[in-house]
Amino acid sequence: MLTKRLIACLDVQDGRTVKGTNFVNLRDAGDPVALAARYAQEGIDELVLLDITATVEKRRTLIELVRNVAREVNIPFTVGGGIGAVADVEALLLSGADKVSLNSSVLREPGLIDELARRFGSQAIVVAVDARQTPEAPAGPAPEAWEVFTHGGRRPAGREAIAWCCEAAERGAGEILLTSMSHDGTRDGYALGLTSGVAAAVGVPVIASGGAGAAPHFRDVLRPGGADAALAASVFHFGDLSVAGLKNYLLAEGIAMRPVG
């Protein structure tokens, strides 16, 4: 049985970690470098660092912040936000990131996935997919209609979520970071139908994001046929769940995890 992963997400705005609900109503959650170091020490498997306004404000992810995080952790971490060119990816990887996450730029130019995978390897390329359940979503293979959004969830992309995930994987994405905007920050659980639909359709690992609020939510989304990894933010940032406690719970529930310590 393949080991499942827990990932802590650090959404960064103006150099601070923030967290909201459905991509809005943000509140401060602390210093990202300090949080990254803490999670690494506590046994989190990976980190994701997202500059959530980089694309909207047309600026690149903060390279210095990436370097500072890289100095503090010894676990894989992914960086995203405002990445639109080969030079951006190269700069981030050289600054210490293990992977990069792309969203808006590859929806505009899907061929960028192919180019980046050839140059840096699929293992370094994560395609982030922000999806919302809407009646206006383009028709797709799932009974529920999920539309892809860009620019931090502000603009509909006119793409059906599962179909876009399949295309991204076929073009060379090594992982899909799948966020349900309809569940983000609600703490009501992950979008299990969407996640299992994507996992069944693509041949690469799927990271589930959006909606974690209690330990059973992680169990449900990580069961066989679901996600390969579960990402969460507020439940870790605000002390609702500890990494060690959650891993012990998941191991007891039969989910293969890398133990703490």
Brief digest:
With 261 residues, the chain is α/β, with parallel strands linked by helices. 34% of the residues lie in helices and 27% in strands. It has a single domain, classed as TIM Barrel, CATH 3.20.20.70.
Please provide a written account of the structure:
By secondary structure, this protein is of the alpha/beta class. Helices cover 34% and strands 27% of the residues. It has one domain: TIM Barrel (Alpha-Beta Barrel). The protein has helices at residues 32-42, 63-72, 86-94, 104-108, 111-120, 161-171, 192-201, 215-222, 234-237, 243-252; strands at 5-13, 16-21, 24-30, 46-51, 77-80, 99-102, 125-133, 146-150, 155-160, 175-180, 206-209, 229-232. An eight-stranded parallel barrel has the order 1-4-5-6-7-10-11-12, surrounded by six helices. The two termini are 21 Å apart.
